């Protein structure tokens, strides 16, 4: 499978070197396609004969079990040379690309506080996909395969479960995760603001709603 890289992917928080290093580390698993070649322009991986999941298919008990098992395997992989993602800095990199006339200081500080609250909590960092939506899970005759590792890094152990929940309400997670849900939703909304500038006003409204729900 050939992927032509977005030349502005760095603006969206993508680190190609990290992505490839993680893909190579995951080659020993049975849920990642074989890696063949990459450079700054392209990524070549094994073609997986199957179909992308949708919410209904992902909810099937057998498939859900496979997803949970895959996440557990992902989180068991040790990457001692990788730093844990600082979510506040990640949000700041997004916000630095947006005009202060669009997101004022008050909104920015509230968003940063959401991330800071997660960064300063006690949790065991693990390998996270960070964009684990059903569309990034391929069902094949040999089981599921997880694709698009562009945003993978060391992060919060509940993040991948929450990414699925917030997208399509698939997984079950422990209670009192409002702050992490808010962080995840904020990251997605800021991604849209950078990727699709015409959506910025809509995104701003959503960000304000998130801030109000968290009640910082």
Structure description:
- By secondary structure, the protein is an alpha+beta fold.
- The protein has one domain: Aminoglycoside 3'-phosphotransferase, Chain: A, domain 2 (Alpha-Beta Complex).
- Helix content is 45%, strand content 13%.
- It has 8 helices and 8 strands.
- The protein has helices spanning 16-25, 55-58, 61-76, 87-95, 105-119, 159-168, 178-195, 200-214; strands at residues 2-4, 35-38, 42-45, 50-52, 126-128, 137-140, 143-146, 153-155.
- Strands 1-3-2 form a 3-stranded antiparallel β-sheet, with helices on one face. Strands 4-6-7 form a 3-stranded antiparallel β-sheet, with helices on one face. Strands 5-8 form a two-stranded antiparallel ribbon.
- A hairpin with a 3-residue loop joins β2 and β3 (42-45).
- α5 (105-119) crosses α7 (178-195), α5 packs across α8 (200-214) and α7 (178-195) runs antiparallel to α8 (200-214).
- The chain is globular and about 50 Å long.
- It starts with a strand and ends with a helix.
């Amino acid at each position: 499978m050939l992927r032509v890289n977005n030349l502005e992917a760095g603006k969206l928080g993508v680190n190609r070197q990290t992505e490839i290093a993680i893909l190579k580390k995951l080659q020993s698993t049975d849920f990642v396609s074989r890696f063949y070649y990459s450079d700054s322009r392209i990524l070549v991986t094994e073609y997986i004969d199957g179909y992308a999941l949708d919410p209904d298919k992902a909810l099937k008990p057998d498939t859900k079990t496979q997803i949970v098992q895959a996440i557990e395997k992902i989180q068991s992989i040790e990457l001692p040379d990788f730093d844990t993602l600082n979510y506040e800095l990640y949000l700041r990199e997004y916000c630095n690309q947006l005009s202060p006339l669009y997101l004022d200081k008050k909104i920015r500080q509230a968003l940063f506080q959401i991330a800071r609250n997660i960064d300063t909590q006690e949790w065991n960092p693990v390998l996270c996909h960070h964009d684990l939506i059903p569309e990034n899970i391929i069902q094949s005759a040999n089981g599921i395969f997880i694709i698009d590792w562009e945003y993978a890094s060391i992060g919060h152990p509940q993040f991948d479960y929450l990414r699925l929940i917030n997208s399509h309400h698939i997984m079950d997670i422990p209670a009192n995760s409002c702050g992490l849900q808010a962080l995840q939703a904020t990251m997605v909304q800021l991604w849209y603001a950078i990727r699709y500038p015409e959506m910025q006003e809509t995104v701003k409204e959503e960000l304000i709603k998130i801030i109000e729900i968290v009640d910082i």
